[in-house]
């Protein structure tokens, strides 16, 4: 990415809410999180949201839950469409997983649309395994099937 701004992964702050909302809508145009949900996630889990900052805007984010009985969930990973395939998702996941290990997490789960082969491959390459039984039909409502995956650390 020569000639472009330097990308930096950092913890999200209150000032990042608007750009995260925009980024989420770009990354998931069919079903973005509502503003109030992202607002609450940022307020409730401030130490578990990381962003990719290019110096002018945010181009990626990851959101996880704090540990509960040494278990955490990745709730969302979004990369601006024009920068996908350049390793930013892997870098964000590596960063959040390292952070979660430091918080005493032993297992991390996530859900992914079963047909999102790129995301499934990324998660598999990081050590996530699909839950037995395959995709769960209607996990997020009618027609919203999800594959649940878990990483044991």
Report on the structure:
The chain is of the alpha+beta class. The protein has four helices and seven strands. The protein has a seven-stranded mixed β-sheet with strand order 1-2-3-4-5-7-6. Strand 2 and strand 3 form a beta hairpin. It is globular, with a radius of gyration of 15 Å.
Terminal Cα separation, in Å? 32 Å
Multimeric organization: single chain
Uncertain runs: none
Strand content: 25-35%
Rg for CA atoms: 15 Å
What is the number of domains? 1
Envelope shape: globular
What's the story with the biggest beta sheet? 7 strands, mixed
CATH architecture verdict: 3-Layer(aba) Sandwich
Number of strands: 7
How do the strands line up in the largest sheet?
Answer: 1-2-3-4-5-7-6
CATH topology: Aminopeptidase
Mean of pLDDT: 94
Helical amount: 25-40%
Quick rundown:
With 153 residues, the chain is α+β, with helices and mostly antiparallel strands. It is 29% helix and 25% strand. It has a single domain, classed as Gcn5-related N-acetyltransferase (GNAT) (Aminopeptidase), CATH 3.40.630.
């Amino acid at each position: 990415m020569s000639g472009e701004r330097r990308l930096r992964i950092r913890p999200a702050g209150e000032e990042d809410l608007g750009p995260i909302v925009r980024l989420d809508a770009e990354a998931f145009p069919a079903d973005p999180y509502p503003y109030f949900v992202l607002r609450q996630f940022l307020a409730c889990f401030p130490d578990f949201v990381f962003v990719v900052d290019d110096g002018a805007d945010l181009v990626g984010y990851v959101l996880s839950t704090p540990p509960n009985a040494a278990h955490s969930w990745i709730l969302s990973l979004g990369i601006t469409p024009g920068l996908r395939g350049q390793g930013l998702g892997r870098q964000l996941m590596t960063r959040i997983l390292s952070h979660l290990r430091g918080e005493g997490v032993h297992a991390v789960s996530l859900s992914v649309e079963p047909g999102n082969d790129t995301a499934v491959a990324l998660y598999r390459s990081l050590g996530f395994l699909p839950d037995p039984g395959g995709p769960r039909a209607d996990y997020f409502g009618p027609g919203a099937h999800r594959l649940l995956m878990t990483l044991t650390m």
